[in-house]
Amino acid sequence: MVSRSYSNLLDLASGGSGSPTFSYGAKKRLPRVATVGSLLYEQDDESRSNGGSDAATSSVSQERVIIVGNQLPLCTSRRESGQWSFSLDEESLLLQLKDGLGDDTEVIYIGCLEEQIDISEQDDVSQTLLETFKCVPAFVPPEVFSKFYHGFCKQHLWPLFHYMLPLSPDHGGRFDRSLWQAYVSVNKIFADKVMEVINPDDDFVWIHDYHLMILPTFLRKRFNRVKLGFFLHSPFPSSEIYRTLPVRVELLRALLNADLLGFHTFDYARHFLSCCSRMLGLTYQSKRGYIGLEYYGRTVSIKILPVGIHMEQIRSVLDLPQIEAKSFRGKLFLELMIWISSKE
């Protein structure tokens, strides 16, 4: 029997609720990633749905984190020859997260590219990015991406999380369910990409921001014992505002399929807990700084994890020879703080 924690979303993703399904041509699965001389084992779909721990054991000893975000930490451009050119985006927050992990931790990135890649080029681009940058691109059809990003994310979620009622100019401000269906479909595409490279018994999956709030549902369904973390880079509104969203319960249940939920401040976490209490009837325990929610036999941890400042990058700039006057150093430091705030 499918758990109620994700049954509705699975029906929607498969078209069981009469929703449209999106496809983008036949996709060739990426090979498992080679790590410390070993290939991560392949499993059939049935074994994955049972947790993926009984089919085989991996000899991988290096800790690995899969960071999933809406956009890959890459800059993309096309040369005059027609070939694609890729480089790391040093300003990407997802890329800088790696500096907070151990030197022996391998990081795989999953996300979209800045540019649309033709279907005929997608396999070659995927292989190049995997081998060169440890990046796995998620290819989303342009019309679906527009509904997902410019539609549901920017017309509904972003305004809601910043205490503005959702706006949908094309539909008189009313909720557009087709945008929600596109949001579910894109999250499913991301889930498929994670499944191509994950070793469910050993890897940690770290999901970022409101673009992928229901991704934990699809991963938990496929790998029941997967280690999932989610961090919200935006505020979380009070229950009075959040309850105006028609799919409020679906999003809450999806987030609770993660093992750990991170928020910038205690107020944001408190608002989330209040929503879980008032809309799902859940209670939480708090003891010595630990906050936990019991959900379908699992304990979901709630953490306050404010994004910090990358001091090494600031020091490297302030120590440049051309930066000498203290007044200039102070002005530059202030400008850096303003720039960092604008990126959050």
Tell me about this structure:
By secondary structure, the protein is of the alpha/beta class. Helix content is 39%, strand content 18%. It has 12 helices and 13 strands. It has helices spanning 7-13, 45-49, 93-96, 119-133, 142-161, 177-197, 215-222, 239-242, 248-255, 266-280, 311-318, 326-343, and strands at residues 34-35, 38-39, 64-71, 74-78, 84-88, 106-112, 135-137, 204-208, 227-231, 260-263, 284-287, 290-295, 298-304. A 9-stranded mixed beta sheet has the order 7-6-3-8-9-10-13-12-11. The protein has a two-stranded antiparallel ribbon with strand order 1-2. The longest helix is centred in the middle third of the chain and has 21 residues, at 177-197.
Summary keywords:
alpha/beta, 344 residues
Structural class: alpha/beta
Question: Which residue ranges are poorly predicted, with pLDDT under 50 across at least 5 consecutive positions?
Answer: 17-60
Strand content: 15-25%
Radius of gyration: 21 Å
Largest sheet: 9 strands, mixed
Shape: globular
| Amount of helix | 25-40%
Q: What integer is the average pLDDT?
A: 82
Order of neighbouring strands in the sheet with most strands: 7-6-3-8-9-10-13-12-11
Give the strand tally.
Answer: 13
Our count of helices gives: 12
What is the H/E string?
HEEHEEEHEHEHHEHEHHEHEEEHH
**Span between N and C termini?**
41 Å
The gist of it:
This protein is of the alpha/beta class. It has helices at residues 7-13, 45-49, 93-96, 119-133, 142-161, 177-197, 215-222, 239-242, 248-255, 266-280, 311-318, 326-343, and strands at residues 34-35, 38-39, 64-71, 74-78, 84-88, 106-112, 135-137, 204-208, 227-231, 260-263, 284-287, 290-295, 298-304.
